[in-house]
Specification:
14 helices, elongated, single chain, mainly alpha, two-stranded antiparallel sheet
């Protein structure tokens, strides 16, 4: 029994070191499939989603989903600490470590409790000195555990600011897309709002910024996949819906729209699709992608496609007259939509539509009201008519695809 617990302690110690190294330090996708972190998310995310799914109110449900990311980060640290404590406790017990204990444990269970107490006080550097090791090998492991505890605390202190800095950088571009593509963002709205003199240059700049944003996502979210669980501050915003809307717009520009930004659209499309594919691999969504490959095409059915074409024509956006336009667009959609749908299904996020929702004439959004005030003969329009929800990024209650 003692030998088994000694080996178990050594295995747990090595597992925590390897897991924390791959999760915090290694700047690339982990290659080990069975890791403590992955087992932790498998054991917590699915039960969390099943419980939260029982909440009928959408806003409350999204609020509970938003708790998981920060809470899972804290629980991950707790899991590592408990595993390290147990690992060294088993090592001391397996080594028959002689301790000078004022409680004088005489039973096997009492000695095991002393080993766990010594492990806990050493890991968290209490330094009480009430239990003293009586041989050299035990002292060596106590020094190792004390150093591991200090290193663990240093990693946690350094890890959290990096994580939230990456989250802040991600959300900044997502928030900026609100005024450029609506909330929730759609490809149709993005193209409509860039139909003005100089709009091509503005659209080219926007797509270039999202190319860099996608490259940053590859750097941060592949290294720190836990960020994918972090929700945006507003219910109608998410990194996944924003990226999908950008890819939708790029697919339209490449296949259907005559404008001078095709080259930049191709570059942004390539890097954006790379983000979805790699993140899908991190979360092992390959099988789900195959199942959702056919279901993904319900996002752009015939009615939605006709409405999209009508909206773009009304705004004098030039469309290619090729009868094979839809086939080319569907070919591009196959490259990214299954990956987006698989991640949306896993993270319980909504994917955007292709066309914006109908504008409520009684309570227009802030974008429409500003446009009316800018138009000649419309100076009497009052911003008081704008609904309070429309002035924020929580405009609308569209559920999206999933």
């Amino acid at each position: 029994m003692h030998i088994f617990l000694l080996l178990l302690g050594l295995v747990l110690y090595a597992a925590v070191l390897l897991d924390s190294f791959q999760t915090i330090i290694l700047p690339r996708r982990p290659v080990v499939r069975f890791r403590l972190t992955r087992l932790f998310f498998l054991a917590t995310w699915n039960p969390w989603t099943r419980i939260v799914h029982l909440v009928r109110d959408r806003k409350r449900r999204e609020q509970y989903y938003s708790f998981y990311g920060p809470l899972s980060l804290l629980m991950l640290f707790v899991m590592w600490a408990i595993t390290l404590l147990a690992a060294f406790g088993f090592i001391y017990f397996g080594l028959h470590a002689p301790f000078t204990d004022p409680l004088h444990p005489t039973t096997v269970l009492g000695h095991l409790r002393t080993c766990f107490y010594v492990s806990g006080s050493t890991l968290f550097t209490l330094g009480l000195g009430d239990v003293v090791p009586a041989n050299h090998i035990t002292r060596l492991f106590i020094v190792m555990e004390a150093g591991t505890g200090l290193g663990f605390i240093a990693l946690v202190i350094g890890y959290v600011p990096v994580l939230y800095s990456a989250f802040s950088a991600r959300e900044m571009e997502v928030a900026l897309l609100d005024a450029r593509a609506g909330s929730p963002p759609t490809a149709g709205e993005l193209l409509l709002r860039h139909h003005f003199d100089g709009g091509d240059a503005a659209l080219n700049k926007l797509l270039a910024e999202w190319e860099r944003w996608s490259a940053t996502m590859l750097e941060t979210h592949i290294s720190y996949p836990i960020l994918c669980y972090y929700r945006s501050q507003h219910d109608n915003q998410s990194w996944l819906s924003a990226l999908t809307a950008i890819l939708d717009a790029c697919a339209l520009i490449i296949t259907a729209i005559e404008c001078p930004v095709q080259r930049q659209a191709q570059l942004t499309f390539a890097v954006g699709r790379h983000v979805l594919v790699d993140i899908g691999h991190v979360f092992h969504r390959e099988k789900a992608e195959q199942k959702l490959r056919d279901a993904a095409f319900t996002r752009l059915n015939d009615d939605e496609f006709s409405r999209l074409c009508d909206l773009l024509r009304q705004a004098d956006v030039s469309l290619c007259g090729d009868i094979h336009l839809r086939a080319r667009l569907d070919a591009l959609r196959k490259l990214y939509e299954p990956h987006a749908c698989a991640m949306a299904h896993y993270l319980r996020l909504d994917l955007p539509r292709w066309t914006p929702p109908a504008v409520n004439a009684a309570k227009p959004d802030i974008w429409t009201s500003i446009g009316q005030l800018r138009s000649p003969g419309s100076t009497t329009v009052s911003l008081n008519a704008v609904s309070p929800q429309a002035t924020s990024s929580t405009l609308g209650d569209d559920q999206g695809f999933l």
